[in-house]
Structure prediction request, 416 residues.
Amino acid sequence: MATIDFHHQTSKSSATSTDSRLPTGATHAVVASILGWTLDAFDFFVVVFLMDHLAHQFGVPKSAIVWTLMATMAMRPLGAFIFGLLADRYGRRIPLMANLIYFSAMELLCGFSVNYTFFCVLRALFGIGMGGQWGVGASLAMEAAPVRYRGILSGLLQSGYSMGYLLAAVAARFLLPVAGWRSMFWIGAAPGLLGFYIWAKVPESIAWKQNRAASTYEVLKVVRRQWVRVLYLVVLLTFMMFLSHGTQDLYPDFLQEVHRVSAAMRANIAILYNLGAVVGAIIFGEFSQRIGRRVSISAALSLCLLMIPLWAFGSNLVALVIGAVLMQAGVGGAWGVIPAHLNELSADAARSLVPGLSYQLGVLLAAPTNSVQYGLRGLVGYSWALASFEIVVIVTLGILLLLGTEAHARPFVIEA
Prediction:
């Protein structure tokens, strides 16, 4: 099969790295990036567990609350552009701190919502912050990590998304019944405190210092020069978003509507399948360092495809739980490779903007996922709505990976 020919960008940063140590400053950079993405994801997934509460509180149909998820996702590219451009021009630390404070403030205000319009506007504004966090945090972590650890740290970083979902499930299970829905948003303001940790412990990226563009215009010129690659990454990430949001966002609601699973049990199941996603991200992230990025993603997608019968059509709770856990192990595994894969394919001077913008434009294009699946359930049933959607997505991703390329283990830092 023909492949898209991406000319490997050579630069002075492509020198071979021999340092396999993880210095203290690099450890803090990786920890900050993982925690930032974890808490960001928590703030997004809170709504997934509050759809009935919010619909009742604001006197709107549940579909209107589903729409706020789409509004959040639709605004994320704007955040990726703003914060990614700032990070490539002025460094990773300050934009990352500003981003954490911004989206924490939006999450806090959501807990004070007095009506649906106020809540919807705040969720859209939150989307700007959510969109800015991943690109900056991923570039900071991947640039700090020695090449030999990049795969497993990529998995750990991306597993922050599943850990955020898991924490949201834990909060829904134990905090929501005793403290109410507003408390779920108020504790979501915690990421703002992470800014102090970054200020005190996280050093600026050496790779950014070595490859800093002379101006904002120069960063944009770099992006324009690799527009074919960016376009490919946007398409790839769009279908990756179909994979993750299509298997995660409405699944608790599917368990409730089709199988009458209680709220407490839904939260328990979500905890289990997010643990599966974390394990999958780490395992397939490490595999990608050994066998390549695309092969590792394809293997994870194969696991997803095999689990669809149990995940969507399981006849009892045990089958559904096994299917959900292994499905998310595959989804998390495929995503666990993405931070390393995107950073390696990005130009040195635009390593925050290109991965972040590609990621979040994929989010924008995939924003209707929840509404489409929710609408399909009325035509073909909830099980087939989820299953048919994901079969098409997985097959398409396999084709995209065959058409693509990778820059496996490309070093980012010039060795002295």
